[in-house]
Structures are given as structure tokens and as C-alpha cells.
Amino acid sequence: MNNQDLKNLREDLIGELEAINNYQEHIDATQNEKLKKVLGHIRDDEKEHFAELTKLLQELDEAQKGKFEKEEL
Question: What is the DSSP string of 27-67?
Fold first, then answer.
């Protein structure tokens, strides 16, 4: 894995976290239950994406893998 690929992967992780936070803010700001439900579903999809990318980072970056192992993650 080259450094640019790892950089892109980390930027993708940042994007997923930002999306999760944005959807949560929108959920908290609305009173519309249907909208809350749809946004919650989308937010949860973003959480899954974040988990998938984190797992991939752990597999592809040996230094990061060591940190995960050190923390027993």
C-alpha cells in the first residue's frame, strides 16, 4: 500500500465521521419523526462505512495495526 492510498483512506474516514455528525445534528434539529427515521438510517450506514474503512486501515497499515493491537481493538 502506498502512502497516497493510506492518506486517501484516512481522508475517507474523516469524511465518514463528518457525515455521521452532520446527520446527527439534523436528527436533533427536526421534530419530524419520518425525517428522523430516514436520517437515522443513513447515519447508521455511515457508521458502517466508518467501521469498514477502519478495518481496512488496520489491515493495510502495519504501524496502525500495531496500535490497534496495543489497545486490544
Answer: HHH---HHHHHHHHHHHHHHHHHHHHHHHHHHHH-HHHHHH
Q: What one-letter code names the amino acid at 3?
A: N
Q: Is 61 left (phi over 0), alpha (psi -120 to 50) or beta?
A: beta
Alpha carbon 42 to its chain centroid, in Å, reads 12
Calculate the average pLDDT of the chain: 95
Calpha distance 39→28 (Å, rounded): 10
What is the residue extent of each domain of the chain?
3-70
The C-alpha cell at 1 is 500500500
pTM: 0.89
